[in-house]
Structure formats: structure tokens, C-alpha cells
Design a protein that fits this description.
single chain, mainly alpha, about 0% strand, globular
Length: about 110
């Protein structure tokens, strides 16, 4: 039995990412571990915010992408899966967005190899 779109209502769980980070940074080793996957966390945070704005469940996004809820769950898991640009485009379209990728200059203004 396939669920109808009207049956898939998203009820967001409140999550204060800044408060989480403030508390987590007090733990030994957290800063170094977080820094290693900070970009992935930022990507996942953007994905979750876009899905919440669209008011969709993982099941609804999966249905729109033509995939499974577990595949969407993997996309929304920082550090556990490296999604392809094609998958990110499908996800963006499913939540009513378009994907934008930018390269931002290093805060030190130098090349990584120098």
C-alpha cells in the first residue's frame, strides 16, 4: 500500500544546533573531530532546514526522488555517506530547492599547499 502525499505530514523536532555545538565543544576531542567533518555537518544542516521548510517527511522526499526512506536517511547523515552531486540535485528538487555549490576563499587567504 502506497501512502498518499496528504498522509505524509512532517512534524519537526526542535533542534538548536548552536546550543548543541556549545555543549558538545566542552567534551574532550570534540573540536578536532567536528572540524574534520564540519562541511558535512553544514551540508546536512542545510538539507534538514530545506526539508523542514517544505514540510516533508523522509518518506515524502524519498517518494519524490524515486528512492527509499533509508537512502534519504543516508543522505542526511553527516560523515557516514558522501552523496553525489546528482543525488544532491534530486534531493534539492524534491524539497523545492535548487543546488548551489560555491568555493569560498580560505580564511587565511592562502592556497592549501602553501
Amino acid at each position: 500500500m502506497q501512502l498518499q502525499m496528504t498522509e505524509l505530514k512532517y512534524k519537526p523536532v526542535r533542534h538548536d544546533h548552536d546550543a548543541f555545538l556549545k555543549k558538545a565543544k566542552k567534551r574532550a576531542g570534540f573540536h578536532k573531530a567536528y572540524e574534520a567533518i564540519e562541511t558535512e555537518y553544514a551540508l546536512v544542516n542545510e538539507m534538514l532546514k530545506a526539508r523542514a521548510r517544505a514540510g516533508l517527511t523522509q518518506e515524502a522526499v524519498a517518494q519524490r526522488m524515486g528512492t527509499t526512506k533509508s537512502a534519504v536517511s543516508r543522505l542526511e547523515s553527516a560523515g557516514k555517506h558522501a552523496p553525489s552531486v546528482a543525488s544532491l540535485k534530486k534531493y534539492a528538487k524534491a524539497v523545492g530547492c535548487k543546488l548551489q555549490v560555491r568555493f569560498v576563499a580560505d580564511s587565511k587567504g592562502k592556497y592549501a599547499n602553501n
